[in-house]
Amino acid sequence: MWTLLLVTLPTQPGAVRLRIWRNLKALGCASLRDGAYVLPTEHAAAFDEIAAEVLEHGGTASVFELGTRDAPQHEALQAQFSRTEAYAQWRESGEALRSELASLAETDARRRLRSLAEALASVQRIDYFPGVSLQQAQAFLAALRRDLDARYSPGEPHPGAGGVARLDRSQYLGKRWATRARPWVDRLACAWFVRRFIDADARFVWLKEPLKPPRGALGFDFDGATFSHVGALVTFEVMAASFGFDGDERLRRVAQAVHFLDVGGIPVPEAAGLETILSGLRGLHADDDALLSAACSVFDALYVAQPESTT
Hints:
Order of helices and strands: EHEEHEHHHHEHEEHHHH
Strand order of the largest sheet: 2-3-1-4
Shape: elongated
Largest sheet: 4 strands, antiparallel
Number of strands: 7
Number of helices: 11
Radius of gyration: 25 Å
Structural class: alpha/beta
């Protein structure tokens, strides 16, 4: 079943006309003619809101249920919702990024990868009849993310299955902790968390390839480590939950920025500034202990700056 919006846009104000047009475009409607827009009924709730705005500003708008007479007509209408061209354009952007990896700094490459992921999500939101094109795009994005990890973060962990067990902080004092050298946001956040909430005197070992922690050291953020990605959680989120800090609202806000910068997802306001500062610190400090010391001050400030509760 389809839903049809017949609309005559108000002549004034121009800002309203532009907003309505942009909203219709963002919905990915099929256009039967000027002023006649169609969506699959299960995705057409926004038509009512658009129609109400048009009427409020003096235009005309009516919403109808629409049926097709036969299978060929249905297929012809459905074909208007093909996103093949959008996926092809998206793929061109992805190929451009892959071809430029050798000349890009990690921060720039990962920023462009997140933009690419967001662009794919935008296409997917209006792909009402997803098929092979979406599957190919998702596979390409996953392969491109692996390429970035292989170049900039060798040993990036694969998400593990299962839950997160609660641990006793007192059993983790006086330990050595080990992770991959040249730490980026997730590893820096984990080390800061250990220093601030678990053991202020914790020592860290920065591992080169192959990833073989010293005997007795607690590994984090690599495959086989004591703490690593679990499901959709990055290592920092796993650590916070393991030691009972998942209810700390300030820490949760920090974790949202860390998650976004590490694997993408929902952007948060703090992420861009955190990325810029950490990138600058990595440029300033070739020694990983010095880098961690500087990053700890950044995470301390970010943590204190967060509201204690959003309620």
